[in-house]
Amino acid sequence: MAKKVLIIEDDTALAENLSSTIKAGGMEVLVCHDGEAGFRQAEEKKPDLILLDLVLPKKHGFKVMEDLQKNPNLKSIPVVVLTNLESPHDIEKASSFGIKAYLVKANYTLSEILKKIKEVLEG
């Protein structure tokens, strides 16, 4: 069965490009454009990995990670952060939630992001 990736990203063009790339990599993709909807999708669909932006409407990415950690059914889902925030404070805060990778958008191509997702899913 194909692995399921949940993209939580408010930039619709980027979300579409990520979705196409990940689908081409053989995975199923769910897309949400705000933190609240993303968390609900995580609860309902139990994805194999969450690709999470931090600066999101309705619920910030840090709050999404906090809520995932509080939920025993969701806390084991690997999270890869994909954001423009690159301060050491933000990286440290995100790392405190046990994320699998912290990717700064400007530093990675779509194919490099796909490669990182596959690495995380393969353990």
Automatic annotation (TrEMBL):
Gene Ontology BP annotations: phosphorelay signal transduction system
Keyword Ubl conjugation in record: no
Pfam families in the record: Response_reg
InterPro entries, per the entry: Bact_response_regulator (IPR050595), CheY-like_superfamily (IPR011006), Sig_transdc_resp-reg_receiver (IPR001789)
Response regulatory domain mapped to chain residues: 4-120
Signal sequence segment: none
Modified residues (4-aspartylphosphate): 53
Keywords tagged on the record: Phosphoprotein
Superkingdom, taxonomy of origin: Bacteria
Identification of the protein by name: Response regulatory domain-containing protein
Lineage: Bacteria, Candidatus Giovannoniibacteriota
